[in-house]
Amino acid sequence: MRIKCVIKEINTDINTVDTKTKQQQNMADISASEDGLSLKMATGVPSYKVILHGEYGVGKSSIFRRFMNNSFTTATGKQSTIGLDQCSRTINIGAQDVKLTLWDTGGMERMSFIGSSYYRGAHAALLCYSVNNKDTFTILSQYILDIVMNAEGAKIFLCGNMSDQVPRDGGVNTVTDADLEQFMSQCEDVLSGVYRVSCKDCTGLEEMFRDMARVLHQDAVSRMTLRRDLIRPGQTPDRDITTNSEKRRCC
């Protein structure tokens, strides 16, 4: 079954289970969030939460260190990371400054426990795999479903790490371009960006962070513009948006 079809079914089940009260509360939360973002755009720097996700050992913490202070630690010099961590950076995209706050699992996925606070309020997830370990790639569909179910509405970006460690002859355990193209064709409606990076030599990382900031900010601006268009004078945001949402579900 195609991944996007499975995700569509999950979203349908979630909508069926939700009560009208919960829907109204969710719309109120979205309204408050967008109002806050609008205020930040007008008076300061818009901020977006990005969570790291993927199998243990694919270099999520290395990506986090590069983002935090542009440092890299070799495998022999690494210390085990246990516990959530986060770091914020301001990135310029054209004439606009955007703040990304990156969250790292800190190795908690090894214990099969990542709390709800990790997903809460996430605008995006950076889903990572190792390009020289096909096992970390073939399991990505499970992580996508996990993100969809726990971080509703978050955009998903795909990151192939350790590009510097690909053997010259390719290797049987290497994720090939054909593997990636097939996966992308199954997730064409799910992925918002696809990147290939190396934390060791810092290849592609800054470009990835900047592109993610651009996509997230453009999406936020588009959603706020649409929301303003949906709200007519004399009507409340919660009532109008909920009504439109209900109409769309009936179609």
TrEMBL record:
Keywords: GTP-binding, Nucleotide-binding. SUPFAM superfamilies: P-loop containing nucleoside triphosphate hydrolases (SSF52540). Transmembrane segments: none annotated. GO terms for molecular function: GTP binding; GTPase activity. The keyword Nucleotide-binding applies. InterPro entries: P-loop_NTPase, Rab, Small_GTP-bd, Small_GTPase. This is Uncharacterized protein. It comes from Arion vulgaris. The lineage of its organism: Eukaryota, Metazoa, Spiralia, Lophotrochozoa, Mollusca.
